[in-house]
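Look over this record as teaching material.
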Amino acid sequence: MAALSAFIFWCRHQGTFWLMALPIAGLAAAIAYVLDTRREFIDWQHHWSWDLLFTLIYAMFLDRWIKEALLEDALPCDEVDEMRRSTVAVRFLTFAAALCLLAIMMAPSPYIELNAVACAAAASVFVMLLPSLAANKPLSLHEAFVLGRPVQSHLFLLIGGAILVSLLTGLGLTLVAMMLPAKPWVVAMVAGLQRVVDCLLLAGVGYGLASFFRTLTDWQQPEPADHPFRGLRLRAKKA
């Protein structure tokens, strides 16, 4: 049911999704094309800095998607508009960068599956920090750990599943590219498609994190000051 809810939410926000996903895919395709056609940039192919760059871009995408999920069906008011306009928190980017650097440090290991499990486990421990930052209700790392502990296994499966699908997609696209002509556009197409799939997975993860956050805390959507039932809705117990 959670997956179905995430899919329905994605279908209802096609404009927002593609407005963010297409520039990411276009940037990835352009970079791949330039690196493949310009020999002077050959040393920059598969450089770790590209992973860090797109991790930060993914973090901004995830922050925006979590905000949209938290504000689903919210009544228009200044607080809602302010939350939608707010920029990604520095701590959000720092958390994403730390996970990226962890993955880069583990990259030389030949056991890709173990690397994915380790990254998913590390992310799931403190990942509830991200929706709290998106909701402008920041938690400490200890508070994020305590909040997410009741659903730790679900968080691990959510994040680990997304990482696994991304890895399998990359493998599948590589195999498809080997059957196509050795043209620069093939490399660009593969890079762009990989980023689109990653954005789809991030949309699912973001919706899941927002749902967990709303269930585990007493956070409520901002409401207009003249709303007749302002502040009277049932609140979930804080873990």
